[in-house]
């Protein structure tokens, strides 16, 4: 196996967890939990954007972020108005998918709507 990707769809999340501070803390704690070395980290959201340019559709209002790790990346896309979060954890280093899933569901206080594990060969 070359790598593994855990794909999580969470619904009915606590939208209060969709802040920059909370998402950054989530990445830090998740990386500690699954023993990943953090590298660059970026947000893509409406912070600092003029009101007339902000996203306003249900399926686009939210925050995206990427945490590069030494062995690949972890991404999140939140939909604030729908209280959904979509998370992808990909690494060519093995990691505990159950621990990552359980921590993620707990952190965002959501319901697991879908989980997919892809083994890269």
User: How many β-strand runs?
Assistant: 6
Structural class: alpha+beta
At CATH level 2, the architecture is 4-Layer Sandwich
N-to-C SSE string, H for helix and E for strand: EHEEEEHE
Helix proportion of residues, in percent?
10-25%
Question: Poorly predicted ranges (pLDDT <50, ≥5 residues)?
Answer: none
The CATH topology is given as: S-adenosylmethionine decarboxylase
Radius of gyration: 14 Å
Number of domains: 1
Average of the residue pLDDT scores: 94
At the fourth CATH level, what is the homologous superfamily?
A: S-adenosylmethionine decarboxylase
Major beta sheet, strand line-up: 2-3-4-5-1-6
Enumerate how many helices there are, as a single number: 2
Shape: globular
For the biggest sheet, the summary is: 6 strands, antiparallel
CATH class: Alpha Beta
Measured by DSSP, the beta-strand proportion falls in 35-45%
Q: First CA to last CA: what distance?
A: 5 Å
Question: What report would you give on this structure?
Answer:
The chain is of the alpha+beta class. The chain has one domain (3-48, 57-120): S-adenosylmethionine decarboxylase (4-Layer Sandwich), CATH 3.60.90.10. It is 21% helix and 40% strand. It is built from 2 helices and 6 strands; from the N terminus they run βαββββαβ. It has a 6-stranded antiparallel sheet with strand order 2-3-4-5-1-6, covered by helices on one side. Strand 4 and strand 5 (84-91) form a beta hairpin. It is globular.
């Amino acid at each position: 196996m070359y790598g593994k990707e855990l794909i999580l769809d969470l619904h009915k999340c606590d939208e209060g967890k969709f802040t920059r501070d909370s998402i950054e803390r989530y990445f830090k704690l998740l990386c500690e939990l699954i023993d990943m070395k953090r590298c660059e980290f970026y947000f893509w959201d409406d912070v600092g954007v003029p009101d007339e340019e902000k996203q306003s559709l249900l399926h686009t209002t939210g925050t995206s972020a990427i945490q590069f790790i030494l062995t690949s990346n972890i991404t999140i896309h939140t939909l604030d108005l729908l209280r959904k979060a979509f998370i992808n954890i990909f690494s060519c280093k093995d990691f505990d998918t159950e621990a990552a899933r359980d921590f993620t569901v707990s952190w965002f206080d959501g319901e697991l709507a879908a989980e997919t594990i892809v083994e890269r060969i």
